[in-house]
Write a structure and sequence with these properties.
9 helices; alpha/beta; Metallo-beta-lactamase, Chain A; about 280 residues; binds zinc ion
Length: about 280
């Protein structure tokens, strides 16, 4: 049976929280969704949203458990996922990310839609990086597995699996109920996103709670439906592109039509997603 989930809305003046497992919480606010794991002696966090929300986020985490926040993993380099890094670091939290996240952040900071936002402070940067995968043993029975995902939303994405809790944080590889943004200038591709979701589904059972980068906390079925949608739209665009259709002609064919109402109301509109897919597909 799937766990009941109620989401913390970080930006609200009055905070509430909901358990999605005895040790795992999802905090939902203005930026990317945050995952919180409460171990026996310490807390582990996935992503840090925006800098101006940190105080609110920390208050919420403190209200869940009064323990040190030992580690924070960034799922990728966008500012709505790394914005609070400095504030966490100032409290003694060690920031972890894929090597590509560090390489990108040293040069340039990008917002959630890939617009350049200048340089960031050194204190924002991850202190520990990895290239393939990472395993954290928070206490004897709880492993946290961090897997790098190749060229999906960006080239430095990771997904985080809380194995004992059967909770998976997908970062922006999964936009639940929305069309995804694929940041091609940062190495993202549609085929990489589909491959990443297929990889993630290998970890999932029917019971897995799936925290998306954006959108409400979901299930394995939500993730499968998302994969099926991406694959269908990708195949339609690929076939049309192969037949020599232009981007404008393919947009006019409306290859996203079944999902325009359900998925096209957020920031990435149907034509924007079609364009991202079109440009990231090589024939
Ligand atoms: Zn992102």
């Amino acid at each position: 049976m799937a766990r009941a989930v109620r989401i913390v809305r970080i930006q609200c003046a009055k905070h509430s929280r909901s358990t999605i497992s005895p040790h795992t919480y999802a905090l939902m606010g203005r930026g990317g969704n945050i995952g919180v794991f409460v171990g026996a002696d310490e807390i582990f966090v996935v992503d840090s949203q925006y800098e101006d929300l940190t105080e609110s986020i920390l208050e919420t985490i403190d209200s869940i458990a009064s323990k040190p926040i030992r580690f924070l993993v960034n799922t990728h380099s966008h500012s709505d996922h790394i914005g609070g890094n400095s504030n966490f670091a100032a409290r003694g939290t060690t920031i972890i990310a894929h090597q590509k996240v560090l390489e990108r952040l040293i040069v340039q900071n990008f917002d959630s839609l890939g617009n350049p936002r200048g340089r960031i402070r050194k204190s924002h940067l991850p202190k520990i990086t990895f290239t393939d995968q990472l395993e954290l043993q928070t206490d004897p029975h709880h492993q946290i597995l961090v897997f790098h995902i190749e060229k999906a939303h960006t080239d430095g994405d990771c997904i985080v699996y809380f194995s004992a809790e059967n909770v998976l944080h997908m970062g922006d590889v999964f936009f639940n109920g929305r069309f995804p943004f694929i940041h091609q200038e940062a190495g993202g591709t549609i085929d990489g996103v589909i491959a990443a979701v297929n990889q993630a589904l290998i970890l999932c059972t029917e019971e897995t709670v799936v925290i998306p980068g954006h959108g409400v906390v979901g299930t394995t079925t939500d993730l499968k439906n998302y994969r099926n949608m991406l694959q269908t739209i990708r195949d339609r665009i690929f076939k049309a592109k192969k037949r020599g259709k232009s981007l404008a002609e393919i947009i006019a064919q409306n290859p996203t039509k079944e999902w325009n109402t359900s998925h096209g109301q957020a920031r990435i509109k149907p034509h924007m997603f079609v364009e991202d897919v079109f440009r990231s597909l090589s024939l």
